[in-house]
Each structure stands twice: as structure tokens, then as C-alpha cells.
């Protein structure tokens, strides 16, 4: 530990000015070279008292918040934590949520405390804080994906949660959708996890909300189909291609790749499902509408603060749009797959093996079916984040448009 003796500092500088070698000064005084150079630089400033310790007082003293504003913060926090009213029942309770509610109440932005100040108010007033579940650290560095969403409604992630059980009503599954950038959420509850439920939900949603460029999902049968017929496509995939959406299947058993929707699923469980009891499917559907509205009001406010821009053009299905969901033609488009290369150098796409090469074993690749060109392209995002096409396969689908399946 370095000595703080002021006389030693002055002695060291005298020796330095007299031309004594730094290594000798340090040896004689029992100091290190960084210590010596620190005081040389301090001396060279020419300031009086250069050899004294600097004040430990912060350069910026936090402005004490007005007592009335602190009272408002405390009352809002307690109200959100109690969650007795509809508008607070499913609300977040953190510092950002306090800012949101103060703004809604008409407080001028100049008097709304900062995030750090609000957290200090929480501490002073002994208000418990929800720390949440510690996220699992994934060392992917985002090389597994080629998509980096920048705009609202560019990428939507969807997923089923469940089954959950309601006494006297049996199992309930909740289908969720979340926009990666805009953070808007939507959902509905069903008895099963069928493709019909997914398509019914999406067609209704797209009549009043923008159609995204990409939909990212896991490999569940609700989305991918049953894999029985080689090179066939589920009705879900066909519907997405039909309205101009590119489908992205994440790697099997890697839910963290769908982090946006997985995060929301946990919040749905904590703030909604576990917070109350439900009597029936219709009861949970009615209450979930309030939950989704509460989430979206808050997320809209956050998106405006970040000045997130929408994807253009903004595409919405006409109100009178009708399609035979049991006979959807296959149209030209792209279907993407994030896949890890196995120990034999293979990946699977719709239950079919393709050899990529032993040099990519253990790496993630990006496989894209071009249904128009009927080819399968394999891309690799290398250590320098340079995307390279490493191989291409013919992907004969059959008569185009193909026969309906899935």
C-alpha cells in the first residue's frame, strides 16, 4: 500500500529535479514508478499544494429532490406494488415505470426524477425491489443470427406458453406475439396448440396491426408442421409467405434465441398468471386484454423515448381479407433456419440432413430455402462478423405452387 506522507512526495520530486534516476528514487524511497510519475505530473501542473491528497468529495453533488416529488414517487411505487386497480394490477414497478406514470399524471419532465434518483428514493424509503430472475449468460456474440432489428414491426417473435390449468376447465395455452423493437405485445388463449389457432390469431391481428417483415419461431409442430412429407411446408409457413413474411426458425432447444418473447412469457407468468385466479377460458381471455393493454401503453411510451421508427411501407390486411386456410398456395419467398452443425458436419432442415463440412462442426449456420429458385443456401457469420455463403444445394419442391400439406 502506498504511503501518503507529504514529505516523501516533496523529497521524491526534489530528487527527480536534481536529475536522480527514477529507478533509484523508487528504490531508496520504497515506492513504485507509477507512484513517482503520478506526483511528477501533479507537480508539473504548477498548482499550489500539489503534494496534498485531493478531496474525496464527488465532483457533482446529487441535487436533493423536492420532498413533495419524493412523496409522489413513494405513493406511485406503493400503488403499483399493491396492484389493486386495473391500471396497476399488471404494471411494472421499477424506476422507469415511475417516470411513465408521473408523465401520464401531467408532471413536467423537468421535475420528474432521473432513474438513479428514483432508485435512491426506493432505498431511503425501504421499498422492496423485484430483482427478477438472473438471466442465463449466453456467449453467442450474436454470430448465430443475420438479423439485427432496427425498426418497429421489422421482426415479430411468437410462441405458445402452457399448458396452464384452471380448476374445472382443464388445460389452457396462451399464444403470444411481441415486436422486437417496438415491444408491442398481443395474445390469446386456447385449449390446444394447433396450427388453426395460430392462423386464426394472426389473421385477426394483421387486420388491425402491421404485418412484419420477419416472424421468428421455434420448431414446434404448430409452426413447422409434422415433417411427414419431405420438402413440404406447413399451412403456417404458406400463410406467412402468402402475405410477404420471411419465416425464421431458431435452432432446436435454444429458446434464448427468441429472447424477446421468452422474456415476455416470464412476465406474463409473474404479473398475470400467478397474480390471480381464473374461472374459465372466457374469463382469462377477458382479463388478458387488460394485461396486454397495460403492457402496450408502457411499451409505447418507451418506444417514443427511444425515438424508434416504424418499418415502411406499413402493410395491414384489408378488413374483408379472406383466405382458405386449408388450401394456401406456395408462393415465392424465403424460409430461414438457424442450425448448429453436428459432429458429422450435418444440419437438419425440415427433418432432412445436409452435409455442410467438418470444418463447421459446432458452429451455427444460417440456412435459407428460396422457394422461387428452389435452392437452399447456407451462410456463415465468421469471427469478423463477415457473412459468407459456404455451400448451395438444389431444393426441388415439385410442381410450383406445390400441393397443400401440413
Describe this structure in words.
It is built from twelve helices and eleven strands. With 406 residues, the chain is of the alpha/beta class. Among the domains are: 39 residues; 58 residues, no CATH class. A nine-stranded mixed β-sheet has the order 3-2-1-4-5-6-9-10-11, with helices on both faces. It has a two-stranded antiparallel sheet with strand order 7-8. α1 packs antiparallel against α2, α1 crosses α3 and α6 packs across α7. The radius of gyration is 30 Å and the shape is flat. The chain starts with 5 loop residues before the first helix and ends in a 12-residue tail after the last strand. 27% of the residues are buried. The C terminus is likely disordered.
* Helix/sheet category: alpha/beta
Helical segment tally?
12
Rg result: 30 Å
Mean pLDDT: 85
Reported for the largest beta sheet, the result is:
9 strands, mixed
Q: Unreliable runs, pLDDT <50, ≥5 residues? A: 399-406
How far apart the termini lie comes to 72 Å
Percent of residues in helical segments?
25-40%
For this structure, the quaternary state is single chain
Adjacency order of strands in the biggest sheet: 3-2-1-4-5-6-9-10-11
Count of beta strands? 11
Order of helices and strands: HHHHHHHEEEHEHHEHHEEEEEE
Strand content: 15-25%
**How would the global form be characterised?**
flat
Amino acid at each position: 500500500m502506498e504511503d501518503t506522507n507529504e514529505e516523501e512526495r516533496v523529497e521524491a520530486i526534489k530528487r527527480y529535479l536534481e536529475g536522480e534516476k527514477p529507478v533509484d528514487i523508487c528504490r531508496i524511497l520504497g515506492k513504485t514508478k507509477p507512484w513517482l510519475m503520478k506526483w511528477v505530473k501533479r507537480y508539473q501542473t504548477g498548482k499550489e499544494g500539489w503534494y496534498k491528497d485531493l478531496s474525496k468529495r464527488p465532483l457533482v453533488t446529487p441535487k436533493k429532490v423536492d420532498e413533495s416529488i419524493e412523496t409522489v414517487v413513494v405513493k406511485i411505487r406503493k400503488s403499483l406494488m399493491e396492484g389493486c386497480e386495473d391500471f396497476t394490477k399488471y404494471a411494472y414497478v421499477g424506476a422507469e415505470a415511475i417516470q411513465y406514470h408521473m408523465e401520464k399524471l401531467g408532471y413536467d419532465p423537468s421535475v420528474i426524477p432521473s432513474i438513479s434518483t428514483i432508485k435512491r428514493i426506493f432505498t431511503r424509503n425501504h421499498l422492496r425491489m423485484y430483482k427478477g430472475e438472473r438471466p442465463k449468460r449466453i456467449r453467442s456474440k450474436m454470430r448465430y443470427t443475420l438479423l439485427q432489428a432496427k425498426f418497429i414491426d421489422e421482426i415479430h417473435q411468437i410462441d405458445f406458453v402452457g399448458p396452464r390449468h384452471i380448476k374445472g376447465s382443464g388445460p389452457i395455452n396462451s399464444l403470444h406475439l411481441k415486436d422486437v423493437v417496438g415491444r408491442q405485445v398481443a395474445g390469446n388463449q386456447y385449449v390446444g396448440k394447433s396450427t388453426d389457432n395460430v392462423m386464426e390469431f394472426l389473421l385477426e391481428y394483421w387486420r388491425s396491426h402491421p404485418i412484419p417483415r420477419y416472424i421468428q419461431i421455434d420448431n414446434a409442430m404448430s409452426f413447422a408442421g409434422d415433417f411427414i412429407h419431405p420438402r413440404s411446408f406447413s399451412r403456417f409457413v404458406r400463410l406467412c409467405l402468402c402475405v410477404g413474411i420471411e419465416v425464421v426458425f431458431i435452432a432446436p432447444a435454444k429458446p434464448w434465441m427468441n429472447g424477446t418473447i421468452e422474456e415476455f412469457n416470464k412476465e406474463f407468468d409473474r404479473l398475470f398468471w400467478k397474480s390471480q385466479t381464473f374461472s374459465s377460458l372466457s374469463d382469462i381471455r377477458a382479463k388478458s386484454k387488460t394485461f396486454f393493454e397495460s403492457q402496450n401503453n408502457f411499451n409505447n411510451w418507451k418506444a417514443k423515448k427511444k425515438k424508434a421508427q416504424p418499418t415502411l411501407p406499413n402493410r395491414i390486411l384489408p378488413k374483408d381479407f379472406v383466405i382458405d386456410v386449408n388450401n394456401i398456395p406456395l408462393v415465392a419467398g424465403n424460409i430461414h433456419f438457424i442450425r448448429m452443425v453436428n459432429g458429422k458436419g450435418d444440419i437438419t432442415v425440415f427433418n432432412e440432413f445436409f452435409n455442410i463440412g467438418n470444418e463447421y462442426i459446432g458452429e451455427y449456420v444460417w440456412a435459407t430455402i428460396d422457394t422461387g429458385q428452389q435452392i437452399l443456401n447456407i451462410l456463415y457469420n465468421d469471427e469478423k462478423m463477415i457473412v459468407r455463403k459456404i455451400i448451395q444445394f438444389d431444393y426441388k419442391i415439385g410442381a410450383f405452387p406445390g400441393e397443400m400439406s401440413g
